[in-house]
Amino acid sequence: MREDGTQIGVVSKEEALSQAKVAGVDAVEIAPNAVPPVVKLIDYKKLLYQQAKKDRQDKASQKKVELKEIRMTPFMAQNDFQVKINRGRGFLEEGHKLRVTVKFVGRQLTHKEFGPQMMDRATTALVDVATIDQPGKWIGRQYLATLTPTKKK
Question: Is the distance from CB of 16 to CB of 39 less than 8 angstroms?
Answer without folding.
Answer: yes
